[in-house]
Specification:
elongated; 5-stranded mixed β-sheet; single chain
């Protein structure tokens, strides 16, 4: 392809279409009226020899070709923007800025406290707003639209418009009443399915099967969920003084074990560890403050 014959503004339009999935909104984003944006889409289709976007009830859905193109095109545009833009300066010690992230309960309990400590020490003028992730898919949409600057937690959905990096991995452990754990330090497989369980469900669910239940079903086993709680902090305090057992992320379990009067014990099954991820847009890397903040999150998590 002869680059001299390619209008690079078409690539900017393609990026906007990928992020908005809507012709009119994409046009507004780059300053084009709807008819002009429709004409631009026609030119894009001719350039790449593909439909690129197909209309559906939920908006313009990208084809496989479009999904394959977005990463290299976004990277190329980011380099061009970086080359043309004046070199920004960012001094965290004097900067004033408000950043907004969304985090799962896990992120709130494990990552946010040391992150706040590091932020106050390095950048006291930066304010941080932490929103809850209740509906992960909706939170990803908020990130794509720029309503939040980053998402943090485990089991977050994927999106071709989002950059995901793993902060660290976490594993599951069991907790049970400390006095009972002294009498029997380890749970057998029979113990695990015989004892009643406490389940944490952030949406206040009714104990629908999750990763643990799926694992048990592969072994031909099933557990009884006796108690379902909407807040993870409540789980160890509900377990204390009872015959209940709960399965939790290890860092959360150890954070509250002593205060609640529970002991952390191994799960008597092999359960796969899971990643705790940080999600942000490609645009974030062009923002000096956000780029610094993402680096700070990674440094803090490297010590957890």
């Amino acid at each position: 392809m002869n680059l001299a014959s390619v209008d690079l503004n078409l690539l900017v339009a393609f990026e906007a279409l990928m992020e908005e999935r809507h012709v009119t909104r994409a046009g507004q984003r780059i300053g084009l009226a709807q008819p002009s944006m429709s004409s631009t889409l026609t030119r894009l289709r001719a350039l790449f020899g593909d439909e690129l976007f197909v209309r559906s009830a939920s908006g313009m859905q990208p084809t496989a070709k479009a999904l394959a193109l977005i990463q290299p095109i976004s990277d190329a545009l980011a380099q061009i923007r970086g080359a043309l833009a004046p070199a920004p300066t960012f001094d965290p010690t004097t900067a004033r800025r408000r950043l907004t992230i969304a985090a799962t309960d896990y992120g709130d309990l494990v990552v946010v406290p040391p992150l706040v400590e590091a932020l106050r020490r390095a950048a006291p003028g930066i304010d941080l707003v932490v929103r809850p992730i209740i509906d992960p898919a909706a939170s990803v949409v908020s990130l794509e639209h720029g309503d939040v600057d980053a998402l943090m937690g485990g089991h977050l959905p994927a999106s071709p418009r989002i950059i995901r990096s793993t902060l660290f991995t976490e594993r599951f452990v069991c907790i049970r009443d400390a006095k009972r754990a002294k009498l029997k330090a380890r749970l057998t497989k029979d113990d695990y399915t015989r004892l009643p369980h406490v389940l944490f469900s952030s949406a206040g669910g009714d104990g629908l099967p999750g990763a643990i239940d799926t694992m048990l079903s592969r072994h031909g086993r099933k557990r009884r969920t006796a108690i379902t709680l909407a807040h993870v902090v409540a789980v160890p305090f509900a377990v204390a003084g009872t015959d209940l057992v709960a399965t939790m992320a290890e860092r959360v379990a150890r954070r509250f074990a002593a205060a609640a009067g529970v002991s952390v014990v191994p799960i008597p099954y092999d359960v796969e560890a899971f990643p705790i991820d940080l999600l942000h847009t490609r645009r974030a890397m062009a923002d000096p403050a956000l780029r610094w903040f993402i680096q700070l999150v990674n440094r803090v998590c490297g010590r957890l």
